[in-house]
Amino acid sequence: FNSLNHDMTLSEFKFIWYMEYSHRMWGRVVGLAYILPAAYFWRRGWLSRPLKGCVLALCGLVCFQGLLGWYMVKSGLEEKPDSYDIPRVSQYRLAAHLGSALVLYSASLWTGLSLLLPRHKLPETHQLLRLRQYAHGTTALIFLTALSGAFVAGLDAGLVYNSFPKMGERWIPDDLLAFSPVLRNIFENPTTVQFDHRILGIASIAAVTALYLFSRKISLPRRTRMAVTSLLAIACMQ
């Protein structure tokens, strides 16, 4: 307020404050939704030994996620006496917070579906093995794309260029490698960060489409085919 936002009203500040407060409270509710039932099921003896390991890992991830959130927000509150830039959290910590959330969500979904749905026993053909490997590779690419989005958000890199598919008047902007050393551009140059996010996004939609087309050539269970089709639909919408 003292450095930049002199005209901010109290109601505008309250909107930001309640957004943050709600996020924290919701995170605590999520933590309780993990830990309390886990303790109850454990005490009742309803968890097998492998499942106990999964439950401990998930509860640990929930606590780690909260710790990362605090560590991330702390970076946005640190005094920077020589800087009059917009106060923002570290893009590195934001990416770590988002990445941890994605791992937690994916692990929760995987564990839940493994308990609810029986595993299909399919013949381990060469095509099925290739499909599984390609699906894992696509998953990693989507995860990397999401993490690159955290860097875009952390640096406000979306404000640098707002035209597509070109960035301004060029396919490859002039200031793509403006920082030194070169590796620093990938994480700290807003232009490079936005450029990488665009490339990764295009690569992700291409990989998901290829995965869908490849899956059409293999005889798969209905549930698996529905999952691949839903993945393509969600990727297109995204």
UniProtKB/TrEMBL annotation:
Main location: membrane
Transmembrane segment boundaries: 25-42, 54-73, 93-117, 138-161, 197-215
Pathway: Porphyrin-containing compound metabolism; heme A biosynthesis; heme A from heme O: step 1/1
GO molecular function: heme A synthase activity; metal ion binding; oxidoreductase activity, acting on NAD(P)H, heme protein as acceptor
Topological type in the membrane: Multi-pass membrane protein
GO CC annotations on file: mitochondrial inner membrane
Cofactor(s) this protein cannot do without: heme b
Localization (cell): Membrane
Recorded superkingdom: Eukaryota
Reactions that this protein is recorded to catalyse: Fe(II)-heme o + 2 A + H2O = Fe(II)-heme a + 2 AH2
InterPro entries membership: COX15/CtaA_fam, HemeA_Synthase_type2
Alphabetic keyword roster: Heme biosynthesis, Iron, Membrane, Metal-binding, Oxidoreductase, Transmembrane, Transmembrane helix
UniProt GO BP: heme A biosynthetic process
Pfam families assigned: COX15-CtaA
PANTHER family cross-referenced by the UniProt entry: CYTOCHROME C OXIDASE ASSEMBLY PROTEIN COX15, CYTOCHROME C OXIDASE ASSEMBLY PROTEIN COX15 HOMOLOG
Protein name per Swiss-Prot or TrEMBL: COX15 protein
Species annotation: Pomatostomus ruficeps (Chestnut-crowned babbler)
